[in-house]
Design brief:
Elements: E1 27-32, E2 38-41, H1 44-48, H2 56-59, E3 63-65, E4 73-78, E5 90-92
Antiparallel strand pairs: 1-2, 1-4, 3-5
Amino acid sequence: MADGSRYLARDRPYGEARLGWATAARSSLWARCACGREATVDPRPWISEGLSRQLLQDLETRLRCVCGARRASLEIRGLAEAPGRGAGEIHVFR
């Protein structure tokens, strides 16, 4: 700013993952619920809605787990990384 102070327009740290990164070669999008379930998530429906630049954390409330949770954390993993336990049963909710 003119007085020498700084103003950051974003309150999020730089380098947070975006949805479009999940479509990179040898990458996949995974959801993990607090109950321990993990599942792959197809990012294509969200990308077709124009959300490819959306931060992953902003999409976490669009996931539903069979345990009743209305949120699951999202992360991008390599294709070779298999789920540890409790695979599946996390669904995209628009």
